[in-house]
């Protein structure tokens, strides 16, 4: 291995030694400054490889030991015209030497691969930030395409920033001149040049990226070698050019994590692993019936790789077929799952109602996105809550569980499976695009830390008739959970009717009796109301008068905003819901303790509506539906106004 490859790893080691008080040698003659955190945004055309670049920088940052949070931002169109504002793809990474909660509000560094990337992101960049631009793309035509009448690199409009004009394309092509590549093929490696430059600037390890490239292009060794050469050239450019006189160190977050084995994980990947773990803990085969839809498709892709764990995946012809197959698998004794986003939930609603009536365990994973209809397929939102609660005909109650961070998707999947299996009910898990695509460090749990989800199937008769005959009643309930028995089809003596028409209590026979229908509706509701969920925990160190209540992915921005307010001397309490149906039993008591309750949501106030209706609390909504997560500064200002108002 050459010295060029090993030098960043050596510098990373020196950064760690510096934290321990050891003498560290300067990196050549250039200044090295220590920072506690950095926010970087890579932005370019959807074909410029910004997501791959961000992923690789994130992986190396995770291996170095920083805490981190990411925000990939994809174009809504599959292939928007090159060089246009709708075609801009970006990846934001916040990494630090301490515990962090969000991808950050405003980037310290913007890497803009073309004029569209600069224009689409410049309003988010604070004065004094660093901007690295690919000058090769700032042609007259490219600038006119996005509305620039003059060159922003020359007209003084960027004087408030530290501008680094770099001919990334030219430098990449020059670095690869000895490879048998066309110019167009060589240009595709400019993202690796940019990655190498940023890796030098922030002393990121490089071995993992080179190994990744060799693996990714194992069948095309020339392409692998070219990308590695471009990556090294970017590193060397940072080391030798006079334009970058300073590099930066962000030490590992040694005290931010409990001891354990960690890895970087996205929400959809964590959710997939949680489903596999739940199936193993229940000793049931995992069955996924799904139709591809953004941003849920990654779960189907991931689970299809794990047949060795007894996972079976079915890519159906449509949403209705996907959930129909999953419900059939539940009837057959599998841990059954269907994955989708909001538009798919609408199509699945009748079968969800059937699952309620049949009282079978079924997990409905809704990775929420901007709506209505097709809406904003690649953007995030929390607007499916009321659909999950009430989007079916008749009285069809369904439990709702919502993870709070990408890593928490693992635990939320296991919790949703626990409820479904214990209470024989379909369960909604409401994630969203922000959690699904974002990532953070995740401590890999030990097997003995996982709950026992073992299921006892019905084995024989469970009821004695007046004449002494022992029979099987498919709707005779457990007195504690109100769950009906789960009988595997084909078990002798346990044959019973199945279908969507109302069942007679106990026997499961078809019934049109009004009194029986009233009883069954109330019993199904009582089963959901009686689900055992943990009490909501309240973080209130100073007996505040204002409570901020959240659910799902707003956890990170809310917590970051609360930290800012407390650091400024304000008193505010925080609580966050994982279980939205049923609510924790102590929630009403908690709400009554505060003069003001503020509920930030990425919708127009759906949880606030539920809270007002159930607890008669005048909860105040703070809402955003722009397809992006809240910013901590924005929330802190809104909460400060609530405290003072």
Give a written overview of the molecule.
With 645 residues, the chain is α/β, with parallel strands linked by helices. It is built from 21 helices and 24 strands. The strands form six sheets. A seven-stranded mixed beta sheet has the order 11-10-12-13-15-14-22, with helices on both faces. Helix 2 (50-64) packs parallel to helix 7 and helix 7 (190-201) crosses helix 9.
Rg from C-alpha positions?
A: 27 Å
What's the number of helices?
Answer: 21
Task: State the helicity in percent bands.
Answer: 25-40%
Strand-pairing-aware structural class: alpha/beta
Strand order of the largest sheet: 11-10-12-13-15-14-22
Q: How far is it from the N-terminal to the C-terminal residue, by CA?
A: 63 Å
**What are the low-pLDDT stretches, counting only 5+ consecutive residues below 50?**
1-27
**Can you tell me the overall shape?**
globular
Number of strands: 24
* Average pLDDT metric: 94
Give the amount of beta strand, in percent: 15-25%
Largest sheet: 7 strands, mixed
């Amino acid at each position: 291995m050459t010295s060029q490859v090993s030098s960043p790893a050596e510098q990373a080691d020196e950064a760690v030694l510096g934290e321990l008080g050891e003498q560290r040698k300067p990196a050549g003659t250039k200044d090295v400054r220590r920072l506690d955190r950095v926010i970087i945004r890579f932005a370019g055309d959807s074909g410029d490889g910004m997501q791959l670049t961000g992923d690789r920088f994130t992986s190396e940052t995770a291996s170095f030991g920083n805490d981190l949070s990411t925000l990939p931002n994809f174009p809504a169109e599959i292939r928007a015209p090159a060089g246009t504002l709708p075609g801009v793809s970006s990846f934001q990474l916040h990494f630090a030497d301490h515990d962090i909660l969000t991808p950050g509000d405003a980037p310290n560094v913007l890497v803009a691969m073309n004029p569209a990337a600069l224009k689409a992101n410049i309003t988010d960049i604070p004065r004094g930030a660093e901007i690295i631009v690919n000058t090769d793309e700032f042609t007259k035509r490219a600038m006119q395409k996005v509305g620039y009448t003059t060159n922003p690199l020359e007209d003084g409009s960027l004087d408030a920033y530290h501008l680094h004009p770099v001919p990334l394309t030219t430098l990449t092509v020059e670095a690869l001149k000895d490879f048998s590549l066309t110019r167009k093929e060589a240009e595709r490696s400019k993202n690796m040049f940019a990655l190498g430059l940023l890796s030098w600037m922030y002393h990121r390890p490089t071995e993992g990226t080179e190994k990744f490239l060799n693996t990714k292009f194992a069948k095309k060794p020339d392409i692998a070698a070219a990308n590695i050469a471009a990556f090294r050239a970017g590193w060397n450019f940072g080391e030798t050019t006079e334009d970058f006189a300073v590099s930066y160190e962000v030490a590992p977050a040694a005290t931010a994590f409990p001891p354990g084995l960690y890895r970087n994980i996205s929400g959809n990947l964590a959710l997939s692993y949680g489903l596999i773990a739940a199936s193993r803990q229940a000793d049931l085969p995992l069955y996924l019936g799904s139709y591809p839809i953004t941003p849920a498709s990654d779960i189907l892709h991931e689970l299809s790789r794990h047949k060795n764990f007894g996972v079976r995946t079915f890519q159906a012809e449509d949403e209705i077929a996907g959930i129909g197959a999953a419900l059939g698998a539940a009837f057959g004794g599998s841990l059954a799952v269907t994955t989708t986003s909001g538009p798919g939930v609408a199509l699945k609603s009748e079968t969800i109602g059937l699952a309620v009536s049949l009282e079978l365990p079924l997990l409905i994973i809704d990775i929420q996105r901007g709506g209505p209809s097709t809406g904003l397929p690649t953007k995030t939102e929390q607007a499916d809550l009321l659909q999950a609660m009430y989007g079916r005909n008749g009285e069809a109650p369904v439990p709702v569980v919502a993870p709070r961070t990408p890593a928490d998707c693992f635990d939320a999947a296991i919790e949703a499976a626990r409820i479904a299996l214990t209470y024989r009910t379909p369960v909604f898990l409401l994630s969203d695009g922000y959690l699904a695509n974002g990532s953070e460090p995740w401590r890999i749990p030990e097997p003995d830390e996982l709950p026992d989800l073992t299921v006892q199937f019905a084995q024989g008769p469970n009821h004695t008739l007046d004449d002494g005959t022992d029979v099987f009643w498919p709707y005779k309930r457990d007195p504690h959970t109100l769950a009906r028995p789960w009988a595997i089809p084909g078990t002798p003596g346990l044959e019973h009717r199945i279908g969507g028409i109302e069942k007679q209590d106990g026997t499961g026979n078809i019934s049109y009796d009004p009194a029986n229908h009233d009883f069954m509706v109330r019993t199904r509701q009582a089963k959901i109301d009686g689900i055992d969920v943990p009490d909501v925990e309240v973080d209130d160190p100073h007996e505040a008068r204002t409570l901020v209540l959240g659910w799902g992915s707003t956890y990170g921005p809310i917590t970051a905003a609360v930290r800012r307010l407390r650091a400024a001397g304000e008193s505010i309490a925080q609580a966050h819901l994982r279980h939205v149906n049923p609510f924790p039993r102590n929630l009403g008591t908690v709400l009554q303790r505060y003069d003001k309750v503020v509920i930030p949501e990425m919708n127009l106030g759906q949880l606030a509506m539920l809270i007002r209706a159930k607890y008669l609390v005048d909860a105040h909504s703070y809402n955003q539906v722009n397809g992006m997560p809240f910013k901590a500064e924005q929330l802190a200002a809104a909460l400060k106004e609530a405290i003072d108002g």
